[in-house]
Amino acid sequence: MKKSAKSKPKRPKMAHISEEMKEWANLLSQELEKWPKVSAKPMFGMRCYYRGSKVFGALPVTRSIESSNSLMFKINPMPPNLLVRAYNDSRVSSTDSLKTRKWRLFEIANESDLRDALWWLNQAYEKAK
């Protein structure tokens, strides 16, 4: 009798990041590393950021989730006011494989998006107490 294969959670698609995103991620990384109690660890071509023991964000180093210009942040639970703001911001999304983990993607199209990317990362940092 054959054992039935356990279904594994679907892994998100990993994309190689653009040269622009490497620069943008580096700028964001420099800022995040100045924040109190922040540490960083490499993971799957990305650098995950922690406030103490709680992960709150991930910036691409060589790979990113789904898009060559996206970063990730985690707010769990997401307060209603931020949920509405995320829903209304076309740059913020989630994928089926990330929904159960409460991660959101932020898509950076140009340098002016860095300010808003940092704002979302700061929201995640503040909620990771």
SS class? alpha+beta
Helix content: 25-40%
Q: What portion of the residues fall into strands of 2 or more residues?
A: 25-35%
What is the count of helical runs? 4
- Cα-to-Cα separation, first versus last residue: 50 Å
Unreliable stretches, pLDDT < 50, 5 or more residues? Answer: none
**Average pLDDT taken over every residue:** 88
Placed side by side, the strands forming the largest sheet appear as 2-3-4-6-8-7
User: How large is the radius of gyration?
Assistant: 15 Å
**Strands, total number:** 8
Shape field? globular
Count of structural domains: 1
> What's the order of the H and E elements?
EHEEEEEHEHEH
Largest sheet: 6 strands, antiparallel
Question: How does this structure look, described?
Answer:
This protein is an alpha+beta fold and 129 residues long. It has one domain. It contains four helices and eight strands. It has helices at residues 19-32, 80-88, 96-99, 114-127, and strands at 14-16, 38-43, 46-51, 54-60, 63-65, 70-74, 92-93, 103-107. The strands form two sheets. A six-stranded antiparallel beta sheet has the order 2-3-4-6-8-7. A hairpin with a 2-residue loop joins strand 2 (38-43) and strand 3 (46-51). The radius of gyration is 15 Å and the shape is globular. The mean pLDDT is 88.
